[in-house]
Structures are given as structure tokens and as C-alpha cells.
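User: Sequence recovery, please. Input:
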């Protein structure tokens, strides 16, 4: 199993893949700090691999996803190339 980090930054043009100078993949869309929906869809265009519906308000340098305990929440510690750590649901901005 591998791990891939994709930054929803809005830096790509929607046609060409954009990889920044540090090798990070960037998307043509970005996510609202107010929260919205995001899903990872299989190449068939319909099968949902993973989804977060109505994720909450976001902060700088904090991600939201499924923790190693299987619960969705904020990831305070970055774990590039490895599984997410334990999440916290008590993040205040």
C-alpha cells in the first residue's frame, strides 16, 4: 500500500497536471475554508473510493480526514508517506 498527498490548491490549469518544485501534486480546484464536499472517485467515474461530505471549517496547515483509528477528524501532525495518525475532533479557531 502506498500513500499520496494531493494539494487542493487551485494551482493547476484543469488540463495539465501540475507538480510544484517540491514534487507536490496540485489540483485545478481548491477547497473553501468554510467546508464543503470532496470525494475520491475511481477511474470509472462513478465509484466513490473515499468521501467527506460537509467537512467542517478548515484552518491553515491542518488537514481533515480519516485517522488511523478509523474516525474522521483533524490531523494536527503531518505524516507524509505514511498512514494518518490519531485525529482530534476538538479543534478551535
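Assistant: Recovered sequence (93 residues):
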Amino acid at each position: 500500500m502506498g500513500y499520496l498527498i494531493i494539494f487542493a490548491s487551485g494551482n493547476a490549469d484543469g488540463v495539465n497536471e501540475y507538480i510544484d518544485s517540491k514534487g507536490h501534486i496540485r489540483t485545478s480546484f481548491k477547497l473553501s475554508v468554510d467546508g464543503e464536499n470532496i470525494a475520491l472517485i475511481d477511474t470509472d467515474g462513478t465509484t466513490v473510493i473515499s468521501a467527506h461530505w460537509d467537512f467542517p471549517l478548515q484552518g491553515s496547515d491542518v488537514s481533515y480526514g480519516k485517522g488511523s483509528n478509523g474516525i474522521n477528524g483533524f490531523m494536527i501532525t503531518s505524516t507524509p508517506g505514511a498512514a494518518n495518525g490519531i485525529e482530534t475532533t476538538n479543534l478551535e479557531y
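Strands lie at 6-7, 18-19, 25-26, 38-41, 48-52, 63-66, 72-75.
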